[in-house]
Design goal:
With about 325 residues, this protein is mainly alpha-helical. Helices cover about 75% and strands about 5% of the residues.
Amino acid sequence: MANSTMVTEFLLSGSPDGWDLSFLYFTVFPMTYLGTLLGNLLIVTLTTADQNLHTPMYFFLRNLSILDMCYISVTVPNACVNSLTGNRSISVAGCATQIFLVFFCAYVEMLFLTIMAWDRYLANCQPLQYLFIMNPQICVRMTLATMISGVLYAGVHTGNTFRLSFCQSNVVHQFFCDVSSLLRLSCSDTTSNMILILVSIIVVGGGCFAIIIMSYIRIFSAVLKFPTRAPGKAFSTCTPHILVFSLFLSSGTAVYLRSSATSDTLQDMVLSAFYTMVPPFLNPLIYSLRNMQVKEAVRRVMQRQFFSGKYKRNKYGTDVTHQNSIMRK
């Protein structure tokens, strides 16, 4: 196109026109980021240190926690630094990297949540075959397959985005680089991009959501047949999982399928925050910190640390506690 110019960098506006969202970048974003890191780091530590949590469910939960720390780190720290320094420029390569990582993390997040729902279905509905099906080799292979397919998925979307020409503007009305904002800046035909996004949402998002719903329906059915399995506990555990995944999928879908004519910048930023920040923040609370096994693991780890410190020996090889009791006598 003759009138198009080569874009060498993008400017992340961070705030819609007429809005000052500095308080978000100095309070809400850092607090959410810190809470996400602490919650997920606690889960990683517990599932690694406690032998009782070395099960398929907590294996995938540990992977999910590591992923969530990476996912929120792709967007939030950069947005806070940009707001603090006032430098909102990002190179084309940096923008492409951010888009690739967001797509990768979002895709792998959906698959991990789906695998975890399927894992609960097997544990509740096929307990005799559970350990045979979910053996360590299968868990590792599923994780590797998820990561490799995530790289391919993110690569296709990133490559399909940056084959376009950008001549409208270089101002991205978001706090991070995302595909929906870049498509509005393109002077090329974006029909194939929208079709790819739509197919991805239907196949990946819709497929994962269907598997999660079917898994929990079968869990509910199995629990209701045996009242001794505490149906109230199953409902209180599964319902938040479905709600968080629904929020994650619906907010992402709303951002990427909204037309530029009806798009509202502030609304897009809020929806983007929901699918990039809220699930990583809530996952530790829903999947672990409300879980009795995790609470017991916290107690065991703290007891081990307490007793290891209580009975540590001084440099002369004498037990500190025993030495203190002798001195008191």
